[in-house]
Write a structure and sequence with these properties.
With 339 residues, the protein is of the alpha+beta class. It folds into two domains: 85 residues, Phosphorylase Kinase, domain 1 (2-Layer Sandwich); 246 residues, Aminoglycoside 3'-phosphotransferase, Chain: A, domain 2. Helix content is 54%, strand content 13%. It has twelve helices and ten strands. The strands form three sheets. It has a five-stranded antiparallel β-sheet, sandwiched between helices. A three-stranded antiparallel β-sheet has the order 6-8-9. It has a two-stranded antiparallel sheet with strand order 7-10. A hairpin with a 5-residue loop joins strand 8 and strand 9. It is globular, with a radius of gyration of 21 Å.
Length: 339
């Protein structure tokens, strides 16, 4: 697929020549996104050879549209279903706004809007999703949880050659899987719910994007992904305040379950994210992920030191402690600068 193919597809849809047409920088995905402008209006044109991922995006976009959720409408799909046109929702991601402004009153308001809309989506979609339409996994159960744990093991522990006792670590992983797959309440889990996947328009309206990996899982997962993402660096008191704010949208029983889910989901999310930084940064050499590795390690280390139940996972705790050692830190620097 060439840039010209995408442009031709866009111009056939609009019926006129594009005023502007350019490619957007890629992040962690293999998808290729373009911006096309015609008659003063912008659109996003996306090419992706992964048909199953596309079909999941089409399904959830249609569902969200019917439920009046703030998400992009898919306007046109090519015959082979690998190229599609979607709404242009804004010039900036919430991540860009946070990076530019820090924790201003505007950012605090946008964070609260995001959490409110997330809770509304979770409530609106209850019993309305056909999870057989999901991309990779229907449920956040043994398979994806184990995959997340091995992401960390493979692309951090093994790549950095950190010593650990294999059978002890695997038994701890098994124990952690059992704990996480039984967390309640369950419902829509968008999976990669973070500030760079939230668009903000000129009226400061919030729109969710990049939800094709959605599945059924613990409702708290997306909240943790959002509030505890390394790049945002929200202060602890603000994160706790926003957790309380999110809990306020639920009845007492569900709020109590959500609170009990926070720490286990923090652990699995920190491990999975750091594994992704290892793969995308140390292996694939993508700058955004390289720059995030130190913060990802710090988040995981601080969590490990402060959660009492980490004592139940001594091999994992020892491995995390080793991430802060001079030898491992030197190894990371060598991999980054001497590649």
């Amino acid at each position: 697929m060439t840039d010209q193919n995408a442009k031709d597809f866009f111009e056939k849809y609009t019926g006129e020549s594009a005023q502007e047409f350019f490619i957007l920088a890629q992040s962690g995905s293999a998808r290729i996104n373009f911006v096309g402008k015609s008659s003063g209006r912008k659109h996003i044109i996306t090419f992706n050879e992964n048909s199953r991922e596309n079909e999941s995006f089409y399904y959830f976009s249609d569902l969200f549209s019917n439920l009046k959720v703030n998400a992009p409408k898919v306007l046109k799909i090519s015959e082979d279903r690998n190229l599609y046109i979607q709404q242009f929702l804004g010039e900036h991601t919430l991540s860009e706004i946070i990076g530019k402004e820090g924790l201003t009153e505007r950012v605090k308001t946008l964070v609260k809007k995001t959490l409110q809309q997330l809770a509304e989506v979770q409530l609106k979609t209850e019993n309305k999703i056909d999870y057989s339409k999901t991309f990779e996994y229907e449920n956040y159960d043994e398979l994806p949880i184990t995959s997340d744990l091995f992401y960390f093991k493979s692309f951090i522990a093994d790549v950095l050659e950190i010593p650990y006792h294999k059978s002890s670590l695997l038994l701890e992983f098994k124990k952690l899987v059992s704990k996480i797959e039984n967390l309640e309440p369950q419902g829509l889990m968008m999976r990669d719910f973070q500030a760079r996947n939230i668009m903000v328009n000129h009226q400061d309206e919030i729109f969710f994007i990049d939800y094709q990996a959605a599945m059924k899982g613990p409702l708290i997962y997306d909240v943790i992904s959002f509030l505890f993402q390394a790049k945002a660096s929200f202060p602890n008191d603000f994160k706790n305040e926003m957790l309380t704010y999110y809990f306020s949208f639920w009845n007492d029983e569900k709020a109590a379950q959500l609170k009990d889910s926070v720490k286990p989901i923090q652990l699995i999310r920190f491990l999975q994210v750091l594994g992704a930084y290892g793969f995308r940064g140390l292996i694939q050499r993508k700058e955004h992920f390289i720059l995030s590795i130190d913060k990802g390690i710090e988040n995981l280390y601080q969590f490990s030191e402060n959660w009492q139940e980490m004592e139940e996972y001594p091999e994992l705790k020892k491995l995390i402690l080793n991430l802060k050692s001079k030898s491992v830190q030197d190894k990371i620097k060598n991999m980054i600068f001497n590649h």
